[in-house]
Amino acid sequence: MLKVEQKRPTKIVDISGTKVGGGHFLFCAGPCAVESRELLFKIADYLKKTPVNLLRGGAFKPRTSPYSFQGLGEDGLKILKEVSEYLGIPFVSEVTDTKYVEIVYKYADCFQIGSRNMSSFELLKEVGKTDKPVLLKRGMAATVKEFLNAAEYILNEGNENVILCERGIRSFDPEFRNILDLNAVAFLKQKTFLPVIVDPSHGTGKRSLVRRLSLAAIAAGSDGIIVETHPNPEKALSDGFQSLNIKEFISLSQEISSFVSYSGYELQKHQKD
Amino acid sequence: MLKVEQKRPTKIVDISGTKVGGGHFLFCAGPCAVESRELLFKIADYLKKTPVNLLRGGAFKPRTSPYSFQGLGEDGLKILKEVSEYLGIPFVSEVTDTKYVEIVYKYADCFQIGSRNMSSFELLKEVGKTDKPVLLKRGMAATVKEFLNAAEYILNEGNENVILCERGIRSFDPEFRNILDLNAVAFLKQKTFLPVIVDPSHGTGKRSLVRRLSLAAIAAGSDGIIVETHPNPEKALSDGFQSLNIKEFISLSQEISSFVSYSGYELQKHQKD
Amino acid sequence: MLKVEQKRPTKIVDISGTKVGGGHFLFCAGPCAVESRELLFKIADYLKKTPVNLLRGGAFKPRTSPYSFQGLGEDGLKILKEVSEYLGIPFVSEVTDTKYVEIVYKYADCFQIGSRNMSSFELLKEVGKTDKPVLLKRGMAATVKEFLNAAEYILNEGNENVILCERGIRSFDPEFRNILDLNAVAFLKQKTFLPVIVDPSHGTGKRSLVRRLSLAAIAAGSDGIIVETHPNPEKALSDGFQSLNIKEFISLSQEISSFVSYSGYELQKHQKD
Amino acid sequence: MLKVEQKRPTKIVDISGTKVGGGHFLFCAGPCAVESRELLFKIADYLKKTPVNLLRGGAFKPRTSPYSFQGLGEDGLKILKEVSEYLGIPFVSEVTDTKYVEIVYKYADCFQIGSRNMSSFELLKEVGKTDKPVLLKRGMAATVKEFLNAAEYILNEGNENVILCERGIRSFDPEFRNILDLNAVAFLKQKTFLPVIVDPSHGTGKRSLVRRLSLAAIAAGSDGIIVETHPNPEKALSDGFQSLNIKEFISLSQEISSFVSYSGYELQKHQKD
Question: Which helix (H) or strand (E) holds A225?
Answer without folding.
Answer: strand A224-228
